[in-house]
Write a structure and sequence with these properties.
Layout (H helix, E strand, L loop, with lengths): L1 E10 L4 H17 L3 E17 L2 E13 L1 H13 L3 E9 L8 H12 L19
Antiparallel strand pairs: 1-3, 1-4, 2-3
Helix pairs in contact: 1-2
């Protein structure tokens, strides 16, 4: 069995629950082909760099897959037919990352900083004396 990282973008007007159902459908489809999904991460609704089919945002989802090339090809065929999927990309890898992906680590870091962007100087709540 080969290892793959697969990312797909779903339209902005579908709900998060529909994206999770779509992921479950793809997981079941891979299971029928003898493969399995080892990691599933929903990255959320994010802005796109450019419009794709009149969409400015998309739901991003990452799947780490362990499956045969035929099972992955069948999954991609179904994704091409589905109108809710804007784009997808599958990359074969030698080994998959353990733990959260870089996108999830970024979100954790932003949550710790309170959305301020870290130690960049900003407003500290105290007023410093002026120097003339």
């Amino acid at each position: 069995m080969a290892l793959y990282e697969h990312i797909y973008l779903a339209r902005q007007d579908v709900s998060q629950q529909q994206v999770e159902e779509l992921t479950a459908t793809l997981t079941e489809l891979l299971g029928q082909g003898g493969g399995k999904v080892t990691k599933n991460e929903y990255w959320g609704l994010k802005g796109l760099s450019y419009r794709i089919r009149k969409n400015r945002k998309a739901h991003y989802t990452l799947l780490n897959i362990e499956a045969s090339p035929a099972a992955v090809a069948e999954m991609e065929r179904h994704m091409r037919i589905n109108e809710d999927i804007l784009r997808f990309m599958t990359v074969r890898v030698d080994e998959v990352e353990e733990g959260p992906s870089a996108m999830m680590q970024k979100r954790d870091r932003d949550d710790r900083d309170g959305g301020r962007g870290g130690d960049r100087g900003g407003f500290s709540g105290e007023r410093r004396p002026r120097r003339f």
